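Supplementary Note 2. Why include the ligand at all?

Several targets in our set were suspected to adopt different conformations when bound, so apo predictions alone were not considered sufficient. For every target with a known small-molecule partner we therefore ran a joint prediction. The input for SPQ is given below.
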Amino acid sequence: MNALKLHPYPKALSGELEVPGDKSISHRSVIMGSIANGTTKVSHFLDGEDCMRTVQVFRSMGVSIEKKGSTLIIEGKGTATLKEPKEPIYFGNSGTTARLMLGLLAGLPFFTAVYGDPYLSNRPMDRVVTPLKEMDAVIDGRGNGSYVPLAIRGKKLKGIHYALPIKSAQVKSAVLLAGLHAEGDTIVSEKTTTRNHTENMLQAFNADITMDGMYTTITNKRSLQATDVYVPGDISSAAFFLVAASIVPGSRLRMKNVGLNQTRTGIIEVLKAMGAMIEITNQQSISGELLGDLTITSTELHGTVIEGDIIPRLIDEIPVIALLATQADGTTIIRNAEELRVKETDRIAAVVNVLSTLGANVESTTDGIIIYGKTNLTGGHISTYNDHRIAMMAVIASLVAQEEVILDDTSSITVSYPTFLKDLQRIMN
Ligand code: SPQ
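The joint prediction is reproduced in token form.
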């Protein structure tokens, strides 16, 4: 346990930051680099616990991955040389590692047993196991294959056309990765756009993939070729500072090289809709991903409605958006976000619990949160639910709280942003 006591902070935030690499893209860079032919150099890789799980998974299958700071050198030799791991594979807390690896492992010609920590063990895996079984995968485990631990007897798969029943990039990615080892075309269609980093990276690694509107088709016709990857700053990490600078009076922050992939920028649209002053400069595209600098200045905010197609484009930012809404005039309504119930924790319940402990006027609905602003936050003892996004949201809340905020445990922060508290210190004057 890593408890943290935070005192009221009466001053403004200012300065410049470069947040660590994007978690989703970092995971994918390890997966693609490990199954491609040739040497892949990954720069600005996120040195977080979750992404290191993915690194460990491939090391256990014999891939040489050298790490120097935030650079990885991956010696890929194609999937044919991957070895059956001797031990069960541990996914820790990482849903992305679990779901994406299930897709890949299902099509590899060996046996694997996989498991996770108690939090991951509660998260649904049937969402990927069901389409993978349609592709002929042999997977079994707890709850009839719905939860880890799971056992996978890898084999040649068959292509399917899968219409995503839930708005999940992890499910889409699992099916696409399985499609690399399937006979015939694998087509995934979605009704709402979810993050498309897997598609972008498969394309960069020369896979036979086509994206046509809401349809993505992949075949096993071409093997992946190594390419260098630069990982942009994680907008989900930048979100904590975007909100901090918006709500702490007198603040102005600049964040450099933040990923601005359209499938992830819902937070910027919401900030603008609430009246925030945010400027985007130096936009460029590297390794198929858009990035740029964000400058944000504190201002008066007002409530808004967040629903429908924007939800997957900001799903991980909802905890900190809810905090933002407590500092905005009027009511903010968040709907269609039922997926939050099956994240590292039930994030709807956790957000409502944390913010109401701090004196906010919030309520949960089945698929979202209603926040009545503006409220002065008090202070109190907070449970972080072992969830990195809840812990970081509570730290940012303490900046505008009038009394001490005491967090029971901040160790989960290392999952996605190990230098978060250090970076926060740098912009506190
Ligand atoms: O890896 P994990 O634990 O699932 O990570 C989270 C997070 O907050 O970092 C969710 F808890 O992000 C997911 C995200 O919610 C990462 C992700 C991806 O990289 O593909 C996609 C989203 O999940 P989903 O289920 O909507 O596809």
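The chain has 13 helices and 25 strands. The chain has a mean pLDDT of 98. Comparable summaries for the other entries are listed in the accompanying table.
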